[in-house]
Amino acid sequence: MVLSTDFVNGVLEALYAVQIALRDAWHALGFAGTVADQPAWPFAQRLAAERLLLEPGHARRVVITLACFAGAVILLLIALAAGFLRRPRNAAQARRRMFWRAGLAAGAAALLVFAPWPSSALLWAPAVPTSLHRAPQPFSTQSIAQGQAVFTQHCAQCHGADARGEGPLASQLAQWPPNLAGGLLWKRLEGELFWRVRHGMRDARSGRETMPAAPALSDQDIWSALDYLQARASGQMLRDMGAWERPVRLPASRLDCRYGGLRGSDSLRGQRLQLVLPTAGEAALPPEDPRWVTVVLGTAPSGSTPECQAQDRALLPAIALLLGVTPQEVPGHKLFVDRDGWLRARSVPGQAAWSEDDLICRSESAPAAAAAVAAAAAAAAAADAPPAQGVDGLLRRMDADRMQLVRAGYPH
Ligand code: HEC
Q1: Are the CB atoms for 85 and 98 separated by under 8 Å?
Q2: Which side of the chain, N or C, has fewer Cβ within a 10 Å radius?
Q3: pLDDT class of 60 with cuts at 50, 70, 90
Q4: What whole-number distance in Å separates Cα of residue 297 and Cα of residue 313?
Q5: Which residues does ligand 1 sit against, CB inside 6 Å?
Q6: What tens digit of pLDDT does each residue of 344-357 get?
Q7: Percent with pLDDT over 70 in the chain
């Protein structure tokens, strides 16, 4: 039996929500306090979703066991509810009822006994009080800029200016710092990264300190440093792999729009955006199009009034970081942001037209989305409509393939 990605993601999302609800209930009852302004996770363990994805057989066992468990609960509830039926008319009916209730209970027990219980070593991961914390601030140009300052001052000496782990102090440490410009950050829960930066890390066996604690930093400094690192890792990924393997948000920033005046970029959620970064000599903006809102970052060519103009000086360096280029190399790029606020497609300087190949962020279910688009194209061809090409094809693929951020195995 093969479980679909959507189904497994749904189960994981539910498991995550259940743990958060449990934590919040514990807090509301007064059993657990707050840490860093959010309810603390009170247990030493949490469900390890990251392992579910690494080993498909394990995921299947967990899902089947959950189904067995749910089935057992339903059978027991029916058996219990039967106790509230009207009094049996005679002894024979009472006996029959007894028989059925015992049967239901036995069925529930059998489901629990024969469920393929997953190994508990794979089920649990060590937890800290901030395990389920979420960054309290949006991923924004401001947090990236603040994080860069924090990182340069407090972290780069070990982690290296490029976060790849080769800072000037690295060779003198008990342990070499990991490469933070790769996929590592997404393999962790952000709350656990926060805890490690705040309280430092120790070698599991010797107990020796491997990374020092950072008591001087504010909570916001730490969340910002993590935002910066994530932006940096995204750019590195795009450079190395030609794609963002993890979805990347357009950092929240301020825009000045023809309709609506000054507004946050998040207020345009639900619209597609085309981010245009004009070069100094550019004569005209690309034509406006009702299918997206054009946002100009930089100086618009004279005589043009863009639909939206970015007001935020920190947006250009943030985009440079996400693209893995220097700020000087940014002009000439264009980017598409989807309706959910994810950066999805890139056109490089000098590129004439858009095509589906410009999609640089696809989900794991991208093949299914591509198949759906192909089927729609075949239907259109049968109806004698021209096939979607260029920007049409790109937008269709972008809309059909919705992104979801996954951290440590949990869809967020
Ligand atoms: C004295 C050197 C040093 C400094 C300063 C330092 N780190 Fe580290 N960092 C390390 C080492 C070594 C490790 C690996 C520790 C281990 O795996 O036990 C590490 C690990 C990490 C990790 C990976 C955690 C994980 O879950 O695997 C992150 C994220 C991180 N550091 C962020 C930071 C940030 C942000 C700062 C600055 C606020 C910082 N570090 C400052 C040495 C340092």
Answers
A1: no
A2: N
A3: confident
A4: 9
A5: 150, 154-155, 157-159, 169, 173, 175, 177-178, 180, 188, 193, 196-197, 201, 203, 210-212, 214, 225
A6: 999 999 998 999 99
A7: 93
Distance 15 CA to ligand 1 centre (A): 29
Closest CA to 16 of 183, 182, 190: 190
Name the phi and psi angles at 182, rounded to 5: -115, -145
Contact 36, 194 (CB under 8 A): yes
Please state, in angstroms and as integers, the Cα–Cα distance from residue 339 to each residue in 235, 249, 290, 292, 344, following that order. 22, 11, 14, 9, 10
What is the Å distance from ligand 1's center to 343 Cα?
Answer: 28
Q: What is the pLDDT of residues 326-345, one digit of tens each?
A: 999 999 999 999 999 999 99
- Ligand 1, pocket-test mutation among 172, 199, 211, 407, most atoms within 8 A of CB: 211
Query: Domain 141-241 - what CATH class?
Result: mainly alpha
Q: What is the pLDDT of residue 84?
A: 87
CATH 3.40.30 describes domain 249-412: yes
The string of DSSP letters for 64-75 reads: HHHHHHHHHHHH
CA distance 250 to 240: 20
Q: How far apart are CA 211 and CA 300, in angstroms?
A: 46
| Per-residue pLDDT at 304 exceeds 90 | no
Indicate the pLDDT class of residue 88, thresholds 50, 70 and 90: confident
Residues of the chain with CATH 3.40.30: 249-412
3-state secondary structure of 117: coil
Range(s) within the chain of domains with CATH label 1.10.760.10: 141-241
* Category of 332 on φ-ψ map: left (φ > 0), alpha (ψ -120 to 50) or beta: left
* pLDDT computed for residue 283 by the predictor: 81
Q: Kindly give the distance from the C-alpha atom of residue 205 to the centroid of ligand 1, in angstroms, as a whole number.
A: 18
The whole model's pTM is what?
0.88
Phi first, then psi, for residue 259 (nearest 5°) are -105, 120
